[in-house]
From TrEMBL:
One Pfam family here: RF-1
Stated family: Belongs to the prokaryotic/mitochondrial release factor family.
Prokaryotic-type class I peptide chain release factors domain sequence ranges: 207-223
Cited Gene3D superfamilies: 3.30.160.20, 3.30.70.1660, Release factor
Protein name: Peptide chain release factor 2
């Protein structure tokens, strides 16, 4: 076995990657064996209860099997996270749409939603770039979410999110519709080589903005890198120096280009245009209605929640699971009717 080869540790990075894979496989095998044994034991108890006419034993075993069903469903979802970069940390960007303060406030709500979701899963969150709105909310934010399978879970969130509510900024209390887009792409490790030269990009520096007080550098330390061939642009202002922000922006750009390559491979494998998951204002994936009724509906899978407050507080796993299942079971689900 490679894990037992002493020479493996001559390359610590490769060794750590292999050991993570080994641990993941060990955990999966143990879980399957445990579930199989639990099912076998409880089926045996039911047979014994039937032979002895003991209904209490039968009911207890049936309850245990129903409990196992939930565990099995959770394990099935974990098997969906088997993509090339699913186990990686992830970048998540939120951009407000047209509509000024309304959309900028909506973007800030989405930022909080994804932060709360990450915290619920035990992930760590860092803000790499933030642009405040003129009056309220944010124009854009880039989050770095660190945790096992962070990208695998979050990747189906890319798209346009729509909010319908009575505006707190409208003195006439009218209903408003706001849009914001989300873009998710994986952090890549050093073993994946993405070649980009200085001549392929445009590098701009600007003054950092957003919350931070004395920690915001007053020099032009923030960095934006634009890949000329694709138009992909990334920005970072989290570091205390232009050098740090430039290094992080290069990492982000390579990750975006890598994600583009993953999309191309997926499209080729599925041989269908619908698998390309392009992002645009016409590609709404989810609607959040707060008035006149309470409903969150995913327009790809039809999955719904009648508790928007819980969803906006980070309860997103059910929506992510539905999207992952649809993606694996023959590509994207058929779009469902939109809601007002």
């Amino acid at each position: 076995m490679r894990a037992e080869d002493p020479a493996l540790w001559n390359d610590p990075q490769e060794a750590q990657k292999l050991m993570r894979e080994r641990q993941s496989l060990d955990d999966s095998i143990k879980a399957v064996r445990s579930l199989s044994q639990g099912l076998e034991d409880n089926v045996g108890l039911i047979e014994l209860g039937e032979e002895e006419g003991d209904s209490s034993v039968i009911e207890e075993a049936e309850a245990a099997i129903r409990s196992l069903k939930g565990e099995i469903a959770a394990r099935q979802i974990e098997t969906l996270l088997s993509g090339e970069a699913d186990a990686n940390d992830t970048y998540l960007e939120v951009h407000s749409g047209a509509g000024g303060t309304e959309s900028q406030d909506w973007a800030s709500i989405l930022m909080r939603m994804y932060t709360r979701w990450a915290e619920r899963r035990g992930f760590k969150v860092e803000i790499l770039e933030l642009h405040d709105g003129e009056e309220a909310g944010i124009k854009s934010v880039t989050l770095l979410i660190k945790g096992h399978n962070a990208f695998g879970w979050a990747k189906t969130e890319s798209g346009v999110h729509r909010l319908v509510r009575i505006s707190p900024y409208d003195s006439n209390a009218r209903r408003h519709t706001s849009f914001a887009s989300v873009w998710v792409y994986p952090v890549i490790d050093d073993s994946i080589e993405i070649q980009v030269s200085e001549s392929d990009v445009r590098i701009d520096t600007y003054r950092s903005s957003g919350a931070g007080g004395q920690h915001v550098n007053t020099t032009d330390s923030a960095v934006r890198i634009t890949h000329l061939a694709t138009g992909i642009a990334v920005a970072c202002q989290a570091g205390r120096s232009q050098h740090q922000n430039r290094a992080k922006a290069w990492e982000m750009l390579r990750s975006r280009l890598y994600e583009e390559e993953l999309k191309k491979r997926e499209a080729a494998a599925n041989a269908t245009e619908s698998s390309k998951t392009e992002i645009g204002w016409g590609h709404q994936i989810r609607s959040y209605v707060l008035q006149p009724y309470q409903l969150v509906k995913d327009l790809r899978t039809g999955h719904e929640s009648t508790s928007p407050s819980d969803v906006l507080d980070g309860e997103l796993d059910d929506f992510m699971e539905a999207s992952l299942s649809a993606k694996i079971n023959g590509g994207a689900a058929e779009p469902v009717a939109d809601i007002d």
